[in-house]
Design a protein that fits this description.
21% of the residues lie in helices and 39% in strands. By secondary structure, it is an alpha+beta fold. Strands 1, 2, 3, 4, 5, 6 and 7 form a 7-stranded mixed beta sheet that branches. The protein is globular and about 40 Å long.
Length: 110
């Protein structure tokens, strides 16, 4: 969260920082972005920067719920045909390309 919160202010017109709740309990934070290139000259992408879900709630569907809600918002805004997510690689995580030290995975929107 320490990296994502400053990005919400630095990229105010393209960033969306929703909190993730399970009922009344705060379980995470995601930083969504809309129509933003990762590197100069890249095609704009929409997705999430480093979703942050509480360790004790991982595996309960909170992360999936957050990704689904961001995907719905990307669709609503007409922001593309796929959702990108960047994350720090870890054991058992998804695989994909890289943007700096972060892996990038994509989910096709249907």
């Amino acid at each position: 969260m320490a990296t994502s919160r400053p990005k919400a202010y630095a990229y105010g017109e393209t960033a969306w920082p929703p909190l993730v709740y399970d009922g009344e309990r705060l379980v995470g934070f995601v930083m969504a972005f809309f129509d933003m290139p990762f590197q100069p000259g890249d095609q704009p992408r929409s997705g999430l920067w480093r979703p942050d879900i509480a360790a004790d709630t991982q595996g309960t569907g909170s992360g999936r719920f957050a990704v689904e809600q961001v995907a719905a918002e990307i669709r609503r805004r007409g922001g593309g045909i796929r959702v990108c997510v960047t994350y720090l690689p870890g054991k058992g995580g998804p695989t994909g390309g890289f943007s700096g030290d972060q892996e990038v995975a994509e989910l096709e929107l249907v």
